[in-house]
Protein backbone atom coordinates (compact mmCIF):
# COMPACT_ATOMS: atom_id res chain seq x y z
CA UNK A 1 0.00 0.00 0.00
CA UNK A 2 1.52 3.46 -0.86
CA UNK A 3 2.22 5.73 2.14
CA UNK A 4 -0.33 8.49 2.83
CA UNK A 5 0.46 11.80 1.15
CA UNK A 6 3.32 13.61 2.84
CA UNK A 7 1.06 16.46 3.93
CA UNK A 8 -1.62 14.17 5.41
CA UNK A 9 0.97 12.14 7.28
CA UNK A 10 2.54 15.28 8.74
CA UNK A 11 -0.75 16.90 9.71
CA UNK A 12 -1.98 13.72 11.34
CA UNK A 13 1.27 13.30 13.26
CA UNK A 14 1.25 16.95 14.41
CA UNK A 15 -2.34 16.67 15.66
CA UNK A 16 -1.21 13.78 17.88
CA UNK A 17 2.31 14.81 18.87
CA UNK A 18 2.57 18.61 18.59
CA UNK A 19 3.70 20.12 21.89
CA UNK A 20 1.30 22.14 23.98
CA UNK A 21 2.89 25.61 23.89
CA UNK A 22 1.33 28.78 25.28
CA UNK A 23 1.15 30.60 21.93
CA UNK A 24 -0.48 27.53 20.35
CA UNK A 25 -3.45 28.03 22.65
CA UNK A 26 -4.31 31.39 21.06
CA UNK A 27 -2.46 31.83 17.76
CA UNK A 28 -2.82 35.57 18.34
CA UNK A 29 -0.49 37.52 16.02
CA UNK A 30 1.19 39.25 18.99
CA UNK A 31 1.83 35.91 20.69
CA UNK A 32 3.21 34.35 17.52
CA UNK A 33 5.44 37.33 16.89
CA UNK A 34 6.91 37.42 20.40
CA UNK A 35 7.43 33.65 20.54
CA UNK A 36 9.11 33.53 17.14
CA UNK A 37 11.47 36.37 18.03
CA UNK A 38 12.35 34.62 21.31
CA UNK A 39 12.86 31.29 19.56
CA UNK A 40 15.60 32.72 17.37
CA UNK A 41 18.81 31.47 19.04
CA UNK A 42 17.05 30.16 22.17
CA UNK A 43 15.89 26.71 23.28
CA UNK A 44 12.15 26.03 23.51
CA UNK A 45 12.09 25.28 27.28
CA UNK A 46 13.65 28.62 28.10
CA UNK A 47 11.42 30.46 25.66
CA UNK A 48 8.25 29.15 27.33
CA UNK A 49 9.38 30.58 30.69
CA UNK A 50 10.34 33.94 29.19
CA UNK A 51 7.21 34.09 27.03
CA UNK A 52 4.90 33.64 30.02
CA UNK A 53 6.76 36.29 32.01
CA UNK A 54 6.66 38.64 29.03
CA UNK A 55 2.91 38.27 28.59
CA UNK A 56 2.31 38.81 32.29
CA UNK A 57 4.07 42.15 32.01
CA UNK A 58 3.14 43.12 28.43
CA UNK A 59 -0.19 41.45 27.64
CA UNK A 60 -0.60 43.28 24.33
CA UNK A 61 1.14 45.52 21.84
CA UNK A 62 -0.18 48.73 23.42
CA UNK A 63 1.30 47.75 26.79
CA UNK A 64 4.64 46.92 25.24
CA UNK A 65 4.72 50.21 23.31
CA UNK A 66 4.50 52.14 26.59
CA UNK A 67 7.40 50.30 28.25
CA UNK A 68 10.77 51.82 29.06
CA UNK A 69 13.69 50.23 27.23
CA UNK A 70 15.43 49.32 30.50
CA UNK A 71 12.40 47.37 31.65
CA UNK A 72 12.23 45.48 28.36
CA UNK A 73 15.95 44.67 28.52
CA UNK A 74 15.67 43.50 32.11
CA UNK A 75 12.85 41.14 31.19
CA UNK A 76 14.90 39.87 28.26
CA UNK A 77 18.04 39.37 30.34
CA UNK A 78 19.39 35.86 29.89
CA UNK A 79 18.04 35.41 26.36
CA UNK A 80 20.94 37.32 24.80
CA UNK A 81 20.91 39.07 21.42
CA UNK A 82 19.29 42.13 22.96
CA UNK A 83 18.63 43.76 19.61
CA UNK A 84 15.65 41.38 19.42
CA UNK A 85 14.12 42.99 22.52
CA UNK A 86 14.83 46.50 21.29
CA UNK A 87 13.23 45.72 17.95
CA UNK A 88 10.12 44.34 19.66
CA UNK A 89 9.78 47.64 21.51
CA UNK A 90 10.51 49.73 18.43
CA UNK A 91 8.04 47.75 16.35
CA UNK A 92 5.33 47.94 19.03
CA UNK A 93 5.69 51.73 18.89
CA UNK A 94 5.47 51.74 15.10
CA UNK A 95 2.42 49.47 15.15
CA UNK A 96 0.64 51.80 17.56
CA UNK A 97 1.49 54.84 15.46
CA UNK A 98 0.85 53.44 11.99
CA UNK A 99 -1.16 50.22 12.15
CA UNK A 100 -3.74 50.79 14.86
CA UNK A 101 -1.76 48.75 17.40
CA UNK A 102 -2.01 45.46 15.48
CA UNK A 103 0.30 43.43 13.26
CA UNK A 104 -0.72 43.90 9.62
CA UNK A 105 -2.03 40.88 7.73
CA UNK A 106 0.33 41.77 4.91
CA UNK A 107 3.66 40.04 4.22
CA UNK A 108 5.24 43.10 2.58
CA UNK A 109 4.17 45.41 5.42
CA UNK A 110 5.52 42.97 8.02
CA UNK A 111 8.90 42.87 6.29
CA UNK A 112 9.22 46.64 6.69
CA UNK A 113 9.03 46.40 10.50
CA UNK A 114 12.24 46.36 12.59
CA UNK A 115 13.45 42.87 13.43
CA UNK A 116 11.00 41.10 11.12
CA UNK A 117 12.67 39.23 8.27
CA UNK A 118 11.52 36.59 5.84
CA UNK A 119 11.24 33.86 8.47
CA UNK A 120 9.30 35.87 11.07
CA UNK A 121 7.00 37.43 8.48
CA UNK A 122 6.25 33.94 7.14
CA UNK A 123 5.61 32.68 10.66
CA UNK A 124 3.15 35.49 11.44
CA UNK A 125 1.38 35.12 8.10
CA UNK A 126 1.01 31.35 8.33
CA UNK A 127 0.73 30.63 12.06
CA UNK A 128 -1.33 33.65 13.08
CA UNK A 129 -3.33 34.30 9.90
CA UNK A 130 -3.23 30.77 8.44
CA UNK A 131 -2.13 32.12 5.05
CA UNK A 132 0.07 30.11 2.67
CA UNK A 133 3.52 31.55 3.39
CA UNK A 134 6.47 29.21 3.91
CA UNK A 135 8.83 29.25 6.87
CA UNK A 136 12.19 27.55 6.94
CA UNK A 137 14.21 27.19 10.12
CA UNK A 138 17.17 24.92 10.88
CA UNK A 139 14.78 22.04 11.60
CA UNK A 140 13.09 22.35 8.23
CA UNK A 141 16.46 22.64 6.46
CA UNK A 142 17.65 19.39 8.03
CA UNK A 143 14.35 17.61 7.39
CA UNK A 144 14.28 18.61 3.72
CA UNK A 145 17.95 17.74 3.25
CA UNK A 146 16.98 14.19 4.20
CA UNK A 147 13.51 13.98 2.69
CA UNK A 148 14.79 15.16 -0.69
CA UNK A 149 18.31 13.75 -0.28
CA UNK A 150 19.97 17.10 -0.99
CA UNK A 151 23.58 16.67 -2.01
CA UNK A 152 24.79 20.23 -1.29
CA UNK A 153 24.95 22.13 2.05
CA UNK A 154 21.59 23.63 3.02
CA UNK A 155 23.03 27.16 3.24
CA UNK A 156 24.38 26.99 -0.29
CA UNK A 157 22.43 29.51 -2.37
CA UNK A 158 20.64 27.16 -4.76
CA UNK A 159 19.87 24.57 -2.11
CA UNK A 160 18.53 27.27 0.19
CA UNK A 161 16.28 28.58 -2.60
CA UNK A 162 15.10 25.04 -3.35
CA UNK A 163 14.14 24.46 0.31
CA UNK A 164 12.12 27.69 0.48
CA UNK A 165 10.46 26.86 -2.82
CA UNK A 166 9.53 23.35 -1.65
CA UNK A 167 8.28 24.66 1.69
CA UNK A 168 5.89 26.96 -0.19
CA UNK A 169 4.84 24.38 -2.76
CA UNK A 170 3.93 21.74 -0.19
CA UNK A 171 1.54 23.86 1.92
CA UNK A 172 -1.92 22.26 1.65
CA UNK A 173 -4.79 24.64 1.00
CA UNK A 174 -6.16 26.23 4.14
CA UNK A 175 -3.70 24.36 6.39
CA UNK A 176 -0.63 26.60 6.45
CA UNK A 177 -0.79 27.06 10.23
CA UNK A 178 -0.61 23.38 11.11
CA UNK A 179 1.49 22.23 8.19
CA UNK A 180 4.30 24.71 8.82
CA UNK A 181 4.36 23.84 12.48
CA UNK A 182 4.31 20.13 11.67
CA UNK A 183 7.44 20.50 9.55
CA UNK A 184 9.34 22.35 12.25
CA UNK A 185 8.06 20.09 14.99
CA UNK A 186 9.04 16.92 13.15
CA UNK A 187 12.54 18.33 12.73
CA UNK A 188 12.67 19.27 16.42
CA UNK A 189 11.31 16.01 17.83
CA UNK A 190 11.93 13.20 15.32
CA UNK A 191 14.31 14.13 12.51
CA UNK A 192 16.98 15.04 15.06
CA UNK A 193 20.43 16.29 14.07
CA UNK A 194 22.47 13.36 15.47
CA UNK A 195 20.17 10.39 15.97
CA UNK A 196 17.03 10.81 13.88
CA UNK A 197 14.19 8.59 15.11
CA UNK A 198 13.39 7.10 11.71
CA UNK A 199 11.49 4.19 13.27
CA UNK A 200 8.91 6.67 14.63
CA UNK A 201 8.85 8.93 11.59
CA UNK A 202 5.47 9.50 9.92
CA UNK A 203 7.10 10.44 6.59
CA UNK A 204 9.66 7.65 6.41
CA UNK A 205 7.94 6.31 3.29
CA UNK A 206 8.69 9.62 1.54
CA UNK A 207 12.26 10.01 2.75
CA UNK A 208 14.79 9.63 -0.03
CA UNK A 209 17.80 9.63 2.29
CA UNK A 210 16.22 6.85 4.35
CA UNK A 211 15.43 4.81 1.22
CA UNK A 212 19.02 5.13 0.06
CA UNK A 213 20.61 4.50 3.45
CA UNK A 214 22.11 8.01 3.47
CA UNK A 215 20.45 9.50 6.55
CA UNK A 216 23.78 9.74 8.40
CA UNK A 217 25.26 11.72 5.51
CA UNK A 218 22.50 14.31 5.27
CA UNK A 219 22.53 17.25 5.56
CA UNK A 220 25.85 17.62 3.77
CA UNK A 221 28.15 19.62 6.04
CA UNK A 222 28.88 23.24 5.04
CA UNK A 223 31.97 25.26 5.83
CA UNK A 224 32.87 25.33 9.54
CA UNK A 225 31.98 28.67 11.11
CA UNK A 226 34.87 30.99 11.93
CA UNK A 227 35.32 31.61 15.66
CA UNK A 228 37.33 34.34 17.37
CA UNK A 229 38.71 33.91 20.92
CA UNK A 230 38.88 36.97 23.14
CA UNK A 231 40.34 37.22 26.65
CA UNK A 232 39.01 39.98 28.88
CA UNK A 233 39.17 41.20 32.47
CA UNK A 234 36.33 42.70 34.45
CA UNK A 235 36.22 44.05 38.00
CA UNK A 236 33.59 44.50 40.67
CA UNK A 237 34.65 47.66 42.49
CA UNK A 238 33.48 47.62 46.12
CA UNK A 239 33.40 50.79 48.18
CA UNK A 240 31.60 51.35 51.47
CA UNK A 241 29.22 48.46 50.86
CA UNK A 242 28.28 49.61 47.36
CA UNK A 243 29.28 48.40 43.92
CA UNK A 244 30.21 50.55 40.96
CA UNK A 245 28.25 49.86 37.75
CA UNK A 246 28.01 51.85 34.54
CA UNK A 247 25.64 51.92 31.59
CA UNK A 248 27.16 51.15 28.23
CA UNK A 249 26.95 53.61 25.35
CA UNK A 250 23.98 53.42 22.99
CA UNK A 251 26.17 52.80 19.92
CA UNK A 252 28.45 50.13 21.39
CA UNK A 253 28.21 46.34 21.73
CA UNK A 254 25.45 45.56 24.29
CA UNK A 255 24.00 49.09 23.93
CA UNK A 256 22.42 50.63 27.05
CA UNK A 257 23.07 47.56 29.21
CA UNK A 258 24.79 47.92 32.59
CA UNK A 259 28.19 46.43 33.31
CA UNK A 260 31.25 46.26 35.50
CA UNK A 261 34.15 48.07 33.84
CA UNK A 262 36.83 46.05 32.08
CA UNK A 263 38.01 45.15 28.64
CA UNK A 264 40.34 43.14 26.48
CA UNK A 265 43.65 41.97 27.82
CA UNK A 266 46.42 43.34 25.60
CA UNK A 267 49.40 41.31 24.46
CA UNK A 268 51.96 41.02 27.26
CA UNK A 269 49.49 42.08 29.99
CA UNK A 270 48.28 39.96 32.87
CA UNK A 271 44.51 40.04 33.52
CA UNK A 272 45.22 42.11 36.67
CA UNK A 273 47.27 44.69 34.74
CA UNK A 274 44.56 44.89 32.09
CA UNK A 275 41.88 45.48 34.71
CA UNK A 276 43.80 48.29 36.42
CA UNK A 277 44.47 49.92 33.04
CA UNK A 278 40.86 49.54 31.86
CA UNK A 279 39.49 51.05 35.08
CA UNK A 280 41.81 54.01 34.67
CA UNK A 281 40.88 54.52 31.02
CA UNK A 282 37.14 54.04 31.41
CA UNK A 283 36.46 55.75 34.74
CA UNK A 284 39.57 57.55 35.93
CA UNK A 285 39.49 55.38 39.08
CA UNK A 286 42.72 53.85 40.37
CA UNK A 287 41.90 50.36 41.64
CA UNK A 288 43.99 47.97 43.71
CA UNK A 289 43.69 45.01 46.06
CA UNK A 290 42.47 42.70 43.30
CA UNK A 291 41.05 39.33 44.28
CA UNK A 292 39.97 36.79 41.71
CA UNK A 293 36.29 35.78 41.78
CA UNK A 294 35.91 33.53 38.75
CA UNK A 295 36.75 32.85 35.14
CA UNK A 296 33.58 32.98 33.06
CA UNK A 297 33.36 31.63 29.54
CA UNK A 298 30.76 33.00 27.20
CA UNK A 299 29.97 32.60 23.50
CA UNK A 300 28.05 34.99 21.32
CA UNK A 301 27.89 35.12 17.52
CA UNK A 302 31.41 34.11 16.43
CA UNK A 303 33.14 35.19 19.65
CA UNK A 304 34.37 32.90 22.42
CA UNK A 305 35.06 35.09 25.42
CA UNK A 306 37.09 34.16 28.49
CA UNK A 307 36.38 36.71 31.20
CA UNK A 308 38.72 37.00 34.22
CA UNK A 309 36.66 38.47 37.05
CA UNK A 310 37.93 40.25 40.19
CA UNK A 311 36.90 42.14 43.26
CA UNK A 312 38.83 45.36 43.55
CA UNK A 313 39.03 48.40 45.83
CA UNK A 314 39.22 52.12 45.22
CA UNK A 315 42.56 53.86 45.76
CA UNK A 316 41.84 57.46 46.65
CA UNK A 317 38.71 59.17 47.86
CA UNK A 318 36.85 60.40 44.79
CA UNK A 319 33.81 58.31 43.91
CA UNK A 320 32.79 60.34 40.86
CA UNK A 321 34.04 58.71 37.66
CA UNK A 322 35.08 60.28 34.39
CA UNK A 323 32.72 58.48 32.02
CA UNK A 324 34.89 57.65 29.02
CA UNK A 325 33.06 54.49 27.93
CA UNK A 326 29.63 54.82 29.50
CA UNK A 327 26.63 57.14 29.59
CA UNK A 328 25.68 56.80 33.29
CA UNK A 329 26.92 55.27 36.51
CA UNK A 330 25.59 54.15 39.90
CA UNK A 331 26.97 53.04 43.22
CA UNK A 332 24.48 50.25 43.86
CA UNK A 333 23.82 48.07 46.88
CA UNK A 334 24.35 44.37 46.01
CA UNK A 335 20.60 43.70 46.23
CA UNK A 336 19.89 46.54 43.77
CA UNK A 337 21.79 44.81 40.96
CA UNK A 338 18.58 42.87 40.21
CA UNK A 339 17.02 46.09 38.93
CA UNK A 340 19.50 46.66 36.13
CA UNK A 341 19.84 44.77 32.84
CA UNK A 342 23.31 43.25 32.42
CA UNK A 343 24.83 41.21 29.58
CA UNK A 344 24.75 37.47 30.30
CA UNK A 345 28.41 37.07 31.43
CA UNK A 346 28.09 39.98 33.87
CA UNK A 347 24.86 38.52 35.29
CA UNK A 348 26.71 35.25 35.79
CA UNK A 349 29.42 37.24 37.56
CA UNK A 350 26.74 38.75 39.84
CA UNK A 351 25.51 35.25 40.66
CA UNK A 352 29.05 34.14 41.49
CA UNK A 353 29.47 37.28 43.57
CA UNK A 354 26.30 36.50 45.53
CA UNK A 355 27.72 33.05 46.34
CA UNK A 356 30.95 34.66 47.55
CA UNK A 357 29.32 37.45 49.55
FE1 LIG B 1 14.23 12.20 9.11
FE2 LIG B 1 14.46 9.56 9.34
FE3 LIG B 1 12.09 10.68 8.94
FE4 LIG B 1 13.88 10.65 7.00
S1 LIG B 1 12.91 8.89 7.93
S2 LIG B 1 12.61 12.38 7.59
S3 LIG B 1 15.76 10.92 8.14
S4 LIG B 1 13.41 10.93 10.73
What would you say this structure looks like, in words?
The chain has 357 residues and is α+β, with helices and mostly antiparallel strands. It folds into 2 domains: 3-217, Endonuclease III, domain 1 (Orthogonal Bundle), CATH 1.10.340; 228-356, Alpha-Beta Complex (Nucleoside Triphosphate Pyrophosphohydrolase), CATH 3.90.79.10. It contains 14 helices and 7 strands. The protein has helices at residues 6-17, 29-39, 44-57, 61-65, 69-76, 83-98, 107-111, 118-128, 138-147, 157-169, 176-189, 208-211, 271-283, 344-356, and strands at residues 228-239, 242-248, 258-259, 262-264, 286-300, 303-315, 326-332. Strands 1, 2, 3, 4, 5, 6 and 7 form a 7-stranded mixed beta sheet that branches. Strand 5 (286-300) and strand 6 (303-315) form a beta hairpin. Helix 2 (29-39) packs antiparallel against helix 8 (118-128), helix 8 crosses helix 11 (176-189) and helix 9 packs across helix 11 (176-189). The longest helix has 16 residues, at 83-98. The chain is elongated. The model has no long low-confidence stretch (mean pLDDT 95). Iron/sulfur cluster is lined by residues 143, 146-147, 190-191, 196-198, 201, 203-204, 207, 209-210, 215.
Can you give me a brief rundown of this structure?
Helix content is 42%, strand content 17%. It is an alpha+beta fold and 357 residues long.
Amino acid sequence: MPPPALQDALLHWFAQHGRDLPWRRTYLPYHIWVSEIMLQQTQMDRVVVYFNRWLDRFPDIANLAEAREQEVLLLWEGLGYYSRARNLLKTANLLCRRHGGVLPEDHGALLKLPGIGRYTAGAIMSLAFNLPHPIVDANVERLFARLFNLTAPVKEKQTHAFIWHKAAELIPEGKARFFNQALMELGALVCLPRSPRCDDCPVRGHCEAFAQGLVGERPVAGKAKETISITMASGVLLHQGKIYIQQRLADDVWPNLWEFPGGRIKKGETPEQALVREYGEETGFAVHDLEKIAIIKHSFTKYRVTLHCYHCRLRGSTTVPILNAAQEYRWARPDELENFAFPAPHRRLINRLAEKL
